[in-house]
Q: What sequence folds into this?
């Protein structure tokens, strides 16, 4: 059934209208203004649009308030769970592969190997267990992907600038390492730069190692994809903008295109050093 | 590339006017983002608006004023507020709650701008609200899978309607050559559209491609 938001609605019931806008759906659009007039929901097209305006304003106002409470903590849980699922899947995959190798002729390794084993028809009790184990591996690997999809959908709503700048997964990891968006927004950029490198940092503070140049942000192409002698500058510039992004996301939530533009320019400048063979005076001109 | 190069006919309700000694696009409406005004007119900053840049650089966007528009990626309403100033009923879809707070303010001052907190990748969640046969789908979502979003929303367009799409290369792949990204995006678009015109949006927006397309319903 392809119904518009107003189908069967009492024109005077604003709450119900707003709820329909928020929660309804339809397989495809239709000539809603025409149908609304035809069904007597609205007197004419102008009246329909007036009602639609009331309903969308009310629905969207309510949805915004509710979603703003949808929080960073869900992302923190999700990204931790994703990492656990992935690690566990890989560990179990090894065990499953070892077992399958003893039972079947050809058994590949890793999660892909487990996927192949999970497809088999077991004949013996031992094979049944080995195949079943492989199925758990596949489930975990699938759950990892589902969690990643959830993170990709949720992070831009919770932290639009951070998600755009770092990508949804790294943005969530940074929030997880800091304990949430608010604590992340309060960290100076030097701390953001080494989040995830706590072990190396303690070793440094104890006088046992040089200071780490980057933590988890190393996984981003801005850092990893920059030649080693410029990585410190890249990490510093990236962390500086990430810290600002976290503050904007926490305090205002506006998407700020300029911020992303500035970072891209800064990164392009750092990478250009490699092209013109400029010697990098480490720590020279960076913020 | 000069600011005056655009001589594609402007939609009714959009004019080139002088603000602080500079010729800029303008529409009539309540100010939204601190833009300069001149009487009832407010400057439409092409540097902050991809559609503004497409129009300013003379692309044939096929708008004449009064159209029904579906706008995807409305953010805080910078561009869609100008669209609502000169177009007819304007549906504004945005999925991030916080910018929508500002979008609500822009909508409160305009009687045919309908804000929707929805995900543009899931058109079925607003197909019960947005009407069929809209004249234009304007899209500026700047996230991965931009072409796919446009394909999924083709169902809202009239046969002779226009997709006015801004593609941001970096949203697809930070490291790839923008030209390759644009080629990929245009390839995906052909699943549902015939591309009529493309142009890079420099100097207004770096590594962005403006695309004008029309639904391809040949099958
Ligand atoms: C570059 S900004 C848009 C700026 C706006 N068009 C303007 O000119 O005023 C991109 C916006 O698209 C939104 N966006 C990204 N993916 C989306 C999706 N799947 N559904 C709805 N909005 C999306 C982002 O939250 C962001 O606000």
A:
């Amino acid at each position: 059934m392809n119904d518009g938001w107003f189908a069967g609605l009492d024109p005077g019931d604003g709450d119900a209208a707003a709820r329909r806008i928020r929660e309804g759906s339809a397989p495809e659009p239709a000539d809603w203004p025409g149908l609304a007039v035809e069904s007597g929901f609205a007197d004419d097209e102008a009246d329909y649009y007036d009602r639609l305006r009331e309903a969308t304003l009310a629905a969207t106002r309510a949805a915004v308030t509710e979603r703003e409470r949808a929080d960073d903590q869900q992302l923190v849980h999700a990204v931790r769970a994703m990492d656990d699922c992935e690690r566990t899947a890989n560990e179990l995959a090894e065990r499953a592969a070892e077992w399958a190798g003893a039972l079947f002729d050809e058994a590949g390794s890793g999660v892909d190997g487990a996927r192949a084993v999970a497809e088999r028809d077991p004949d013996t009790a031992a094979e049944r267990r080995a195949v079943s184990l492989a199925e758990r591996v596949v489930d975990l690997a699938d759950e990892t992907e589902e969690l990643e999809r959830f993170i990709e959908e949720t992070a831009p709503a919770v932290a639009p600038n951070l998600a755009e700048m770092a990508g949804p997964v790294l943005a969530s990891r940074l929030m997880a390492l800091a304990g949430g968006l608010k604590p992340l927004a309060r960290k100076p950029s030097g701390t953001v730069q080494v989040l995830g490198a706590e072990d190396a940092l303690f070793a440094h503070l104890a006088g046992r190692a040089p200071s780490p140049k980057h933590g988890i942000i190393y996984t981003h192409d801005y850092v990893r994809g920059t030649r080693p002698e410029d990585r410190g500058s890249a990490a510093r510039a990236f962390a500086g903008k990430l810290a600002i992004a976290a503050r904007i996301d926490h305090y205002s939530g506006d998407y700020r295109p300029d911020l992303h533009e500035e970072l891209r320019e800064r990164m392009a400048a750092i990478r250009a050093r490699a092209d013109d063979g400029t010697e990098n005076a480490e720590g020279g001109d960076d913020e | 590339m000069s600011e005056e190069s655009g001589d594609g006919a402007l939609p009714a309700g959009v004019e080139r006017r002088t603000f602080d000694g500079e010729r800029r696009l303008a529409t009539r409406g309540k100010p939204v983002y601190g833009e300069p005004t001149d009487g009832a007119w407010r400057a439409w900053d092409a540097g902050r608006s991809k559609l503004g840049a497409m129009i300013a650089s003379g692309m044939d966007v096929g708008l004449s004023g009064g159209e029904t528009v579906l706008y995807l990626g409305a953010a805080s309403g910078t561009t869609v507020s100008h669209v609502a100033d000169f177009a007819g009923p304007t549906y504004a879809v945005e999925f991030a709650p916080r910018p929508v707070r500002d979008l609500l303010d822009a909508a409160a001052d305009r009687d045919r701008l309908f804000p929707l907190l929805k995900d543009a990748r899931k058109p079925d969640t607003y197909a019960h609200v947005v009407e069929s046969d809209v004249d234009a789908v304007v899209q500026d979502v700047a996230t991965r899978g931009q072409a796919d979003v446009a394909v999924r929303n083709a169902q809202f367009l009239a046969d002779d309607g226009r997709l006015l799409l801004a593609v941001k290369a970096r949203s697809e792949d930070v490291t790839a050559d923008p030209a390759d990204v644009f080629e990929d995006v245009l390839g995906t678009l052909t699943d549902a559209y015939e591309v009529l015109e493309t142009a890079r949006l420099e100097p207004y927006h770096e590594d962005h491609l403006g695309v004008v397309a029309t639904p391809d319903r040949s099958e």
User: Anything to note?
Assistant: The two ends of chain B are 38 Å apart (CA to CA). Residues 66 and 87 of chain B are 4 Å apart (CA to CA).
